[in-house]
Design brief:
Radius of gyration: 16 Å
Strand content: under 5%
CATH architecture: Orthogonal Bundle
Number of strands: 0
Structural class: mainly alpha
Oligomer: single chain
CATH class: Mainly Alpha
Length: about 100
């Protein structure tokens, strides 16, 4: 019986790890960075509140790795000088609110 509980627990842990690719990041910190640095640029390019960049049919980002790569690209091109943990915070926020990648 103990082994059954152990297996069930490991499956739950594994399922959770796959369900959240940015588990250790801080979505609230990511939201603050998006609001401060991203919204105006996206709004000028896509109109409205700029969130259409995340939900458009022809979006470039197709995976959690692609999301991080795009965030790093913007970070570099705009000279934001974010550290890796800040990029991951943004990735977590965007993933939770728009992308919903599970791995």
């Amino acid at each position: 019986m103990k082994s059954l509980y152990l297996i069930a627990g490991l499956l739950l842990i594994n399922g959770y790890a796959q369900a959240e690719p940015f588990a250790t990041a801080d979505a609230n910190a990511g939201k603050a960075l998006v609001e401060k640095h991203c919204i105006n640029c996206h709004a000028s390019s896509f109109g409205g509140d700029g969130s259409a960049i995340y939900t458009r049919d022809y979006r470039k980002v197709k995976s959690s790795k692609g999301l991080v790569a795009q965030i790093r690209n913007c970070n570099t091109m705009l000279g934001l000088k974010w550290f890796e943990d800040e990029e991951l915070n943004v990735a977590k926020y965007l993933n939770q609110n728009y992308y919903k990648f599970t791995e």
